[in-house]
Specification:
There is one protein chain. By secondary structure, the chain is an alpha+beta fold. Helices cover 48% and strands 17% of the residues. It is built from 10 helices and 9 strands. The strands form 3 sheets. It has a 4-stranded antiparallel β-sheet. It is elongated and about 85 Å long. The model has no long low-confidence stretch (mean pLDDT 86).
Length: 290
């Protein structure tokens, strides 16, 4: 598998049976300096005529209208493979190359072998496309999870059936306190019977939804308890009260008629005194009284 991007080409995956020793490392070194269509196709966007289609060496040359590609002229001779016939399929999803799958051998490949590779190509395409989407989904889920941890409110990611797929720090605190009550509140919100929960789809066409639980009541009594527990100054208690209501540093600064940098210093002090790693954990500990 070759990854092509702004930084050039890079060999991402290589597996070969009965290949000459050292060919993988040599290929990885040769790739960055190879011309664009070094193997009869462009890895960044293969010719649509070559996508998911089994082709032999002569088929590739007929499609490109050129002679043997650079890989045959300048790389394969190092391993005595330049005279070999090639049978390969570029497994693609749209214009994206998922993998090069094929073989080299001294004798020519026949039509039966072309048909055989063509028969398995659709299954390969489905499998590799699924793996690609799973990797992308895992990466995206990690990014979303990191972003939600910085939200100073209880946020849940709900699946198609309403089950909780992810919960940030504040949401996990609520679940630890009374999971049944939280799940009941979310179920009521999905039925449209609880306006204290904000619901939004993760994407316009997605079945995943974000559920944000709004804080109820005044955090004043909890702030008073936290002030004694964490030995806060009066100003730090004021900041905690506003942060506990979900206000940003800018909004807190406007409410207290001070600079945003001053608020940042107070929030840093609050995190230190409460032994919290982030703003969301601080808010969660305030509302849980822990």
């Amino acid at each position: 598998m070759i990854r092509a991007g702004d930084g050039g080409r890079k060999l991402e995956f290589f597996h070969g049976a009965r290949m000459p020793a050292g060919i993988r490392s040599a290929y990885a070194r040769w790739l960055p300096t190879a011309p664009k269509n070094f193997a009869g196709y462009d890895p960044a966007s293969p010719d649509p005529r070559q996508r998911n289609r089994p082709l032999r060496s002569r088929d590739i040359e007929a499609l490109t209208g050129r002679g043997p590609p650079a890989v045959v002229r300048s790389f394969l001779p190092r391993f005595a493979l330049s005279e070999s016939d090639q049978l390969r399929v570029l497994v693609c999803e749209g214009p994206a190359l998922l993998a090069w799958v094929g073989a080299l051998r001294a004798g020519s490949f026949g039509r039966d072998e072309v048909r055989l590779l063509g028969a398995i190509a659709p299954a390969l395409q489905r499998r590799l496309a699924l793996e690609r989407r799973l990797v992308e989904a895992q990466a995206r889920a990690g990014e979303i999870g990191t972003a939600l941890e910085n939200v100073p409110a209880a946020v849940f990611v709900l699946g198609p059936g309403g089950g909780i797929l992810h919960a940030n720090e504040a949401a996990r605190t609520l679940l630890d306190r009374d999971r049944r009550a939280v799940e009941g509140q979310l179920a009521s919100a999905l039925r449209g019977a609880d306006g204290s929960v904000q619901l939004a789809r993760l994407d316009p066409g997605s079945e995943l939804r974000l559920a944000i639980l709004q804080r109820r009541g005044d955090p004043g009594p909890l702030v008073a308890a936290a002030r004694a527990r964490w030995q806060l100054t009066p100003r730090q208690a004021q900041v905690l009260h506003l942060v506990g209501q979900g206000l940003s540093n800018r909004a807190v600064a406007a409410a207290l008629s001070c600079s945003e940098s001053t608020v940042e210093l107070h929030v840093t002090a609050l995190l230190c005194k409460s032994q919290c790693e982030g703003r969301a954990q601080l808010v969660a500990r305030l509302w849980s009284g822990s």
